Amino acid sequence: MFGFKFSRANEVPVGRDRPMDIKGQHVVLGQDLLPPFPKGCRELMLGMGCFWGAERRLWQIPGVYVTAVGYAGGETPHPTYEEVCKGKTGHAEVVRVIFDPDSVSLEEVLGVFWESHNPTQGMRQGNDVGTQYRSVIYVDGEDWLDAVHASKAAYEANIRAAGVRSPITTEILVAPPFYYAEQYHQQYLAKNPDGYCGLRGLGIGYECISPESQA
User: Fold this and answer.
1) How far apart are CA 61 and CA 79, in angstroms?
2) Quick one: how many helices (H) and strands (E) in the chain?
3) Cα separation, 131 vs 20, whole angstroms
4) Which of 23, 95, 159, 214 is deepest in the core (most CB within 10 A)?
């Protein structure tokens, strides 16, 4: 795990007790941004650099119920964008992906994740540098950890076969608290089609080897 390290504890912003004031429906998918979500849905938090482009890519997956952008994996409760960008809260910019595994599989979502960014860069993604841009997968239950680690191993084998020697640095954990980002960040590129998007993959396909095929 490529974990975040704080330089001095007293540098961590205190944060706040109240959550961000978020309301309304997803601009593209039309679903409520806030829970409760339908029975049977599960959740991933995925970090692949700036969350604007990452969210747009993830809401395009058929079967995804709703997405939202926010912050996770740090220490400051209910941080602001400015606090996260200073690199002292420990949070990653993440996309919360809510989906029904009967409609779209974990495997399919992870395939889009691996192919859509460069998971070997540590605390950066392209020209975006900082702890908030690290690659992360946060799952909503321990029952998914083995499958996620298997997908990482499969994609690492693929990129090595293609000549990439840098190891994957993606942080894989059971989900910490999710804090919604400010309203204007939600579905930013749907509201601002010409806005910045730094999302870039390695151009190497993902194909996980299932346990059945290894038998």
Assistant:
1) 28
2) 6, 8
3) 21
4) 95
Q: How many CB atoms lie within 10 A of CB 3?
A: 11
Catalytic-role residue among 50, 85, 197, 208 = 50
Beta bridge partners of 99: 42, 64
Boundaries of every domain in the chain: 24-214
Of 19, 123, 130, the residue nearest 77 (C-alpha): 19
Domain 24-214 falls in which CATH fold? Peptide Methionine Sulfoxide Reductase; Chain A (3.30.1060)
The first and second tokens of residue 19, run together, are 């959550």
Going by C-beta distance under 8 Å and a sequence separation of 6 or more, which residues neighbour residue 11? 88
Give dist(CA 135, CA 60) in Å, integer: 20
- How far is residue 133 from each of residues 18, 48, 64, measured CA to CA in Å? 25, 7, 23
Quote the CA–CA distance of 141 and 205 in Å, as a whole number: 27
pTM over 0.85: yes
Instruction: Write out pLDDT tens, residues 175-210.
Output: 999 999 999 999 999 999 999 999 999 999 998 555
Q: Is 50 a catalytic residue?
A: yes
Q: How far is CA 160 from CA 1, 25, 110, 146, 166, in A?
A: 19, 41, 18, 21, 8
